[in-house]
Amino acid sequence: MAHGFPPDTRTPPLDGGGGWRDTATRYALLPLRIFLGVTFVYAGLDKLTDSAFMQDSGAGSIGDLMRGVRDSSAIPALVDLALESPVGFGYAIAFGELAVGIGTLLGLLARLAALGGALISLSLWLTVSWASDPYYYGNDLAYLMAWLPLVLAGAPMLSLDAAWRARRQRRGSEYA
Fold first, then answer.
1. What DSSP designation does 10 have?
2. What sign for the dihedral angle of Cα 163, 169, 173, 174?
3. Which of 89, 116, 122 is nearest to 101 (CA)?
4. Which of 108, 116, 129, 135 lies at a CB distance of 3.0 to 4.6 Å from 100, suitable for a disulfide?
């Protein structure tokens, strides 16, 4: 019993070892990382390549979308802020989604990328999908909840963060 925990409740070591359950535990967040990363890269690219979306007004535009959800959003002032420059807001969301998606897929500053994804999802939930009734019809809340495990755990496996951490540990042990 290390640290007062029964042996079966301790987190498995990240350096390998253990059986299939330990391996599954170590890689448990990888499918979520891949799904969220691919989805956010796709969402960013979809916005950037849709000429109708990046317009102040017109069918399918970010401007019309924001005007359409303004009165039903939880925070109308947030929508008003976006409406000051709808195209600029559209580009900010698109590039933010791209950065979050790429960071998540590569495991590069993974907690920061996940926090960015959570904040994007939170802002979209409070504005665009707030009026969904029942609430579970809106997907932005589910995305927000999906980001939280990655905010807490980061990307401990198959990531640039893990590679850098291992390199720092090797360098540290050389000087010990």
1. S
2. positive
3. 116
4. 116
